[in-house]
Design brief:
The radius of gyration is 17 Å and the shape is globular. It has a single domain, classed as Aldolase class I (TIM Barrel), CATH 3.20.20.70. Helix 4 packs parallel to helix 13. It is α/β, with parallel strands linked by helices and 265 residues long. The protein is built from 13 helices and ten strands. The chain has helices at residues 2-19, 22-27, 38-41, 69-79, 90-93, 97-106, 120-128, 143-155, 167-175, 196-201, 220-228, 238-241, 246-254, and strands at 48-53, 56-57, 61-62, 83-87, 111-114, 133-137, 159-164, 180-184, 210-214, 233-236.
């Protein structure tokens, strides 16, 4: 599965480069808006929630095909989310850079562009379209590309969530001194989800790193267990997108009281 997703990402980059050259993207960097540090939002007291916007996924199929970006991310912000994740992959997740721009215009939370980042072009796309951070998936990149993309992202003030699924991938993330480690409970090759992946890898993460648990998380009991073992943040999409009342679901997951944006248990 991952190979198909990566191939599709490369084809998409090539097509967009023909329409908008990278030099033009780079020239637009100076027009970026206010700085919203993504990493800082994840290290508040308690467990921070990265609330995700996605219309569908390869594993779940259609989730909320007609969802409105502004309404959804507004609900997340009111419900106490610490940050947003916006899927921009169109073929498999129904996303777009337009969704990223809409999210940026709607709320004041920091935003991560979630996509299969395989080319430096995508970093500049992310920056000029409103992202404060990007996802780098270790399984999708060789060591040289991982380091190069990480360093270039940081050079243009994009934070990075470096995603791993096993101990070997964690080693690669640590070799580039990634500040924020995402532990994906989903095996991107098999599509299976096992939340124990986070618990198994946590002891191998050095002190001082920020850890984000991803996939397969939907309830407070799971969040409390993750908080107990030292996870700093969780990224949740499916459970929020499928909720009849996304603001209420966000409040349930964050424990936020009415009228506050604290993220505490």
């Amino acid at each position: 599965m991952i190979e198909q997703l990566i191939a599709g990402a490369r084809q998409g980059v090539q097509a967009r480069q023909r329409e908008l050259p990278q030099a033009e993207l780079e020239s637009r960097l100076s027009a970026r808006g206010e700085d919203r540090p993504f990493n800082e939002a994840l290290v508040r007291p308690g467990l921070s929630l990265i609330a995700e916007f996605k219309r569908r996924s390869p594993s779940a199929g259609e989730i909320a095909a007609s969802a409105d970006v502004a309404a959804q991310v507004g609900a997340y912000e009111r419900g106490g989310a610490a940050a947003l994740s916006v899927l921009t992959d169109e073929p498999h997740f129904g996303g777009s850079l337009e969704d990223l721009r809409a999210a940026r215009a709607t709320c004041g939370l920091p935003i991560i562009r979630k996509d299969f980042i395989v080319d430096r072009y995508q970093l500049y796309e992310a920056a000029v379209n409103g992202a404060d951070a990007v996802l780098l998936i270790v399984r999708a990149l060789d060591d040289e590309d991982l380091r190069a993309l990480y360093e270039e992202a940081r050079s243009i003030d994009l934070d990075c969530l470096v995603e791993v699924h096993d101990a070997e991938e964690l080693e690669h993330a640590l070799e580039i001194d990634a500040e924020v480690i995402g532990i994906n409970n989903r095996d991107l090759d098999q599509g299976t989800v096992d939340i124990t992946t986070t618990f198994e890898l946590m002891p191998d993460v050095p002190a001082g790193k920020t850890v984000v648990a991803e996939s397969g998380i939907s309830g407070r009991h799971e969040l409390e267990e993750l908080d107990r073992v030292g996870v700093d943040a969780v990224l949740i999409g499916g459970a929020l997108m499928a909720a009849a009342d996304p603001e209420a679901k966000t409040r349930e997951l964050t424990g936020a009281d009415e009228g506050t944006r604290e993220h505490l248990f």
